[in-house]
Amino acid sequence: MVLAVVQTWITAAVAVGLGAASTAVLGLLVEQVKSQERWPENLAGARPGRVPRVREADDPADWVAQPAGRENWSETPYVERDVDTDLSDLLLHGGFVLLLGESAAGKSRTAYEAVRRTLPAHAWVRPFARSSIGVAVEAALACAPSVLWLDDLENYLGPDGLTVSHVHHLLGQPHPAVLVATIRSEEYRRYDTHEGSRLTGADRDLWRAERSVIARATVVRVQRLWSPAELRRTRGLAPSRRIGVALQACDRFGIAESLSCGPELVNVWRDAWACGAHPRGAALVTAVVDCRRAGLRRPVPVEWARRVHEAYLAARGGECLRPESFEEAEGWACRTVRATSSLLSRSADRAALTCFDYLLSSDGLEPVPDHLWETLLPLVQGEEAYNIGLVAHGELRLRHALVALNRAQQDQVLGADFALALVIGDSGHPRQAIDLLRAQARGRVVPLAVRRQVAHFQGVAGDYVAAAGAFRDLVHEMTSTLGADHPDTLAARHEAAYYTGECGHTSTAVAELTALVADRQRVLGADHHQTLATRRSMAWFQGKGGQLDLAIGELNGLLVESRTILGIRDPHTLAVRSALAQFQGEAGGWERAARDLADIADDRQATLGPSHPHTLATRHQLALALAHSGDREGAHTLLSALISDMTSHLAPDHPHLAAARISHAALH
Asked: How far is CA 379 from the centre of its chain?
């Protein structure tokens, strides 16, 4: 094909005497043809030089990123949604339209029907993966008017993914493309301003780039629970058992949710663990779900699934459950329920497995277990290791984050150096983290994010005066550059007040934290985790300043709220429980404090791991409570073991280790 085009243009150039000027044109044409030859391997339904029209792309399975939940749309009548009229108007006027809603709310079906109804003659461009975005943008421009379809938008953001420049280019043409995308509510919340305040360095830069893409979209919200008008339209359809079942459950589940069998599939998954049922299938589904939750964004290769599911099966009883063969388990998990949905779906080449995304947000999911991280991490590298490392760090699984980010750093992934330094500091080596951060910033202006982390680790290392001073400088600078209400400014105020209190100025800390609580409630909301954290710190310094009754009262109320909002094992809730036990002990209830701290130590070990500094600190608290309650021998034994563990896991000069040695010496 390229040769034929070249011959045609050479003949024309000679005939009209274009000479050298034709060379540039010819080069551009050849490059365009080469680009078009890449379309079939990057775009659904494409051939060299041609992509299908919307009306030709008539297989719904080709439109969706997670086909496990939407394989048989043609057999399910479409019910007009309340957003349909506005959605059609938006598509007719062009632009970037993003449908937002919970899993199985009907986002993809609603978007599919609207595009098919409104833009049948447009070219239809759907990239297979994030790495195909560049080709997809070229095709959308070459085939205008066109629809660029991005189901599950989060899969197309990030390195080598969709950028603001792409969006500007697509929408700035005489015949602009129409971008249509969907995103789950859980993913969309990652781009909330307050969530961004948790990130630093390269992670924050990437988050901002991805958020700027989303900010260009017009968001259309698709509700999970259907409106009275939508339910009336559903009842007007020809009666069927499936629709009848969905209507019966419409007070708890959305119609689309029920029609896709989401709640039913969750029950099928849970019931499969029974002896002689499908225990290997249940283990396989759990393993694939947890791979996604651990940060693996692509489908799980079947051979990986073979490895990682075995530990789940063993944990439930192994051979005692009379498990089926792997082939039977895979077949069961990929079998559709009522011709609608399946727990897992196979890739086109049957070499990888994807979970129905409804399962990712189902109730009662346990934390991703250690054995999943340990089996998965040796299989990944590069950017995948980096993504998994960030998730592990966010989940406070520091041991696994260290492994993943070390691998990402070795593979020279952008941002891995910074992320690894943070994990090293959080793992009990704050001065090493400071040295790494300063080395990364050497020779250039030190970003605010790096200075903030250096100040934080100075405080963790016990340099409270230096940390308090550094954060006060940061508050002044952030207030003038970012604004007084910016989440980063509020976070710096919190740490400045906290380390002021650790310096012994508890009344000043309480006053500053009290003012910050009011500001965080106004800006972030009363239920935000950072607002709750500020209230906890305020109560902590009330107690440290001798106001035990006031601190205990505040912590009791905060504990009720934290359990409801965050859960009993959330790290913030555990910190509230720890502070409350400490002050109840100081108020005279050391025996009760020892019992509570033993439970907290177990919960922190289960949640954070045995070597996390917070787990080790709680064991120290427990030893002191035992000593105060009269069990000096028990305290001595616990401290001896604790010092050994701290020596193995913490830096030699870590304040936790120094404090444990002082307590141990005092018992002699």
From this structure: 20
